[in-house]
Design goal:
Blueprint: H1 2-40, H2 42-53, E1 57-58, E2 61-65, H3 67-70, E3 82-86, H4 92-97, H5 99-103, E4 109-113, H6 116-120, H7 125-142, E5 147-151, H8 162-178, E6 182-184, H9 187-190, E7 191-192, E8 195-196, H10 209-219, E9 229-230
Parallel strand pairs: 2-3, 2-4, 4-5, 5-6
Antiparallel strand pairs: 1-9, 7-8
Helix pairs in contact: 7-8
């Protein structure tokens, strides 16, 4: 009887554990499937090919990211050497896949802002960090003299993902320090009472004109070029 009780207790402990681990594996698989689908989509591929066909600009400043970057009107910097490489719906994995197009410009500075879609689609944080580390390593290898800026993930208005964003930002800050690249805290400039300020967003995630004005002001001092060459 005692052995039966032990066996039953073991099942009570082990079965839920296996269910939990199985669910976590499924969630990771589902997230990976969504990421791969996004990168293989016609939209993503068309954007990438459009970037690849653009005129090469040595010494440029490049902003890389998702729709938050893609919708950023970089003409406010009044510098034709500031290039936008934002793709709506992109993930950290997607940015990693398109670094060759960034490197070909031999930019003097690269600003990275990516990760909110990773969080929203439940990409494991360790996967996002691994991708970020690979991004930094690839840029440092291909552009040893370029300055790299890692910009923090922004808050959202509903607050559902803000704790995850804060945790990932902390990890990104530590990663940036380890690789001697500059980490720019955008998050604190956009948050009010723990949420994305309603006046700085159009839909709870994307930024309004005022929001982009704040982003501009935070990074403007870093967005300078010593000169660029069209090729």
């Amino acid at each position: 009887m005692k052995k039966i009780r032990i066996w039953i207790l073991s099942l009570i402990i082990i079965v839920p554990l296996f269910v939990y681990l199985g669910c976590k594996q499924y969630d990771a698989f589902r997230a990976e499937s969504k990421v791969r689908a996004a990168v293989n989509s016609n939209y993503w591929q068309n954007m990438y090919h459009s970037f690849s066909k653009s005129q090469k600009m040595n010494g440029s400043v490049i902003f890389v990211g998702d729709s938050l970057t893609g919708l950023f009107d970089l003409s406010v910097f009044q510098n034709p050497a500031v290039l936008n490489r934002g793709i709506c719906g992109d993930f950290s994995y997607g940015v990693l896949q398109r670094l060759d197009e960034v490197i070909r410009h031999n930019p003097s500075k690269i600003f990275i802002e990516i990760g909110i879609n990773d969080i929203r689609e439940e990409v494991p944080p360790v996967t996002t960090l691994t991708n970020y580390e690979a991004i930094i390593q690839r840029l440092k290898s291909g552009l040893p003299h370029a300055e790299i800026f890692v910009q923090s993930i922004l808050p959202t208005a509903d607050g559902h993902h803000n704790e995850s964003a804060l945790q990932l930002n902390q990890s990104l800050m530590e990663l940036s320090s380890r690789y001697h690249v500059e980490f720019i805290d955008l998050y604190s400039h956009f948050v009010t009472d723990g949420l994305l300020d309603s006046e700085l967003t159009t839909d709870g995630v994307h930024l309004s004109g005022r929001g982009y004005s704040i982003w501009h002001d935070v990074v403007a001092g870093h967005v300078t070029t010593q000169g660029y060459v069209l090729q």
